[in-house]
Amino acid sequence: MSDEEDNSYDMCRSLCVHGSTLYGFCRRGKVYGTMNIPYADFYAAEIENAYEVDAVSSATQSKWSMNEPGKLVAGTYNDGNGTILGVTYPVEVSAADTEKLAKYDFKPLDSKPAAYKEVTLDGDTLTVSKVIDTNGEQTVDGSAEVSTTTRYGDYQLNVTGYPEETDLYGVIVNTSSGEKYALSHLENIWRAGQISWSAGISTTEVHGNTLRYDNYASSMGKTVTSVTFITLDGYTTVNVGEKYLPVKFAGEVKAEVASAGTGKTSLTLTGFPEDYRKNITVGEGFTASESEISYTGAQPGKYTVSVTDDSGKYAPMSGEFTLATDSVPIKYDNGKIVRADGATDEDAANFIKNLASVDVNGTAYSAYGRRAVKIIGEDGTVDLEAKSGENNVFDGSGNYTVTLTATGYTSPYAFEIKAEAPTEAATAASTTAAATTSATRSSTAAAGGSSSTTAAKTDSPKTGVPGAAVPAAGLVLAGTAAFALRRKKD
User: Fold this and answer.
1) Are 154 and 210 contained in the same domain?
2) Which residues contact 191 (CB under 8 A, 6 or more apart)?
């Protein structure tokens, strides 16, 4: 045994137990362990050094620090200050290098891993191989849906067939023309087979974090054929067929607010490529040209105008606009929101469908979206047991002022619920409840102005998804009645 081999053997003895599965391997001067591998080094061999993958910064501590097994960014390591630096993955290293790898938090393993990377150190230069998959790369047939309207960049793939119930250490998107796009946690890699990236058009995600796009700009117009997932078991490549990534551009679709019913509103399309073959749609009852949208019998609310490219080359675009009215088609009666005199059931249902917020005694609750609080049912019933988190919306006092604001309706509607003092009943065990209301409404400016987006969300109107609704401004009492909730006398 040479001096160099003898030195490696001495180091191996300190890392391996005689008789263990690694003992024989140690005698050859190699050991297995785990170490922190920067993204650039982890992906270098995987993408044949096409570009350098950088660390990921995020202002959301509750996410970037979630690197325990099973968590959002499992398998990663960070600087403790908002930056994910890379992943912690099994490696094969020279026993002579283990002390030098201490700065990478090298920790020996007591058995040979199913998958690992070969790591060598030459001075301060780290060289990391592709994954050595002892079980062989797994290839499966799956599928992928392409979205160009993600809030996390320009493209999102929803992949099926990916390895579930395991942590993902890396993901690579493969194209028909040979490009490989390496993805990072929290910026590109999400849960449930969802991955996303920016190609330079949408460069800020929904939480305000900046998205890097230089490495992905060339993905526009490419065709994705497979996605490779790297786990502790090695590679799993999911074949997804041919999924084209439509070319995106910095265009705008803008339609103006107009009155509901029958009429027209102006439409402006800017930034579209000359060879974009426009197909413009809104929904039933609407017709559209490149400069105007006409409609018949349209209810108040928010609508989406969609522009698609008949050639299929470019991504769809869309813009939202509001059709508004100053009429209030509802009233409160005996615990429910019902149609007002002269209005139809359809009118009342449309108001409820477009509810943006419900204010109870000065506290506003969103009526739509992830944090919506369901206070008004689809049938108009007011839920006096409604909760916002663990807190009751109605405090039990019996006296409430409730204000309803709906998208497309410039006048909020308000009513009062009042409690009367306990009164004698026919028997101590029975009560009756009389219901009346004190109703108010206000007249405000038309809800919203013109609005636009750079991505198509739907090809049909979204009258049930409220947008930025106009708040109540100076409620003026229009009439008074009384709503009584009688309490059971003890």
Assistant:
1) yes
2) 72
Contact 238, 171 (CB under 8 A): no
Structural domain count, the chain? 4
Give, for all 490 residues of the chain, the pLDDT tens digit.
444 444 444 555 555 544 444 544 554 689 999 999 999 999 999 999 899 999 998 877 788 999 999 999 999 999 999 999 999 999 999 999 999 999 999 999 999 999 999 999 998 899 999 999 999 999 999 999 999 999 999 999 999 999 999 999 999 999 999 999 999 999 999 999 999 999 999 999 988 889 999 999 999 999 999 999 999 999 999 999 999 999 999 999 999 999 999 999 999 999 999 999 999 999 999 999 999 999 999 999 999 999 999 999 999 999 999 999 999 999 999 999 999 999 999 999 999 999 999 999 999 999 999 899 999 999 999 999 999 999 999 999 999 999 999 999 999 999 999 886 565 443 333 333 334 455 655 544 345 555 554 454 433 323 333 333 333 333 333 333 333 333 333 3
> Pick from 113, 133, 153: which residue ends a domain?
133
Beta strand ranges found along 325-454 (DSSP E):
330-333, 336-339, 355-360, 363-366, 387-388, 391-392, 400-406, 413-417, 438-441, 451-453
Range of the structural domain that residue 205 is part of: 138-244
Question: What's the predicted TM-score (pTM) here?
Answer: 0.80
- 295: in domain: yes
What tokens appear for 185 in the block? 């946690």
Is residue 299 located within the same domain as residue 340?
A: no
Are 44 and 85 in the same domain? yes
Six token digits for residue 48: 């044949």
Is the same domain home to 22 and 146? Answer: no
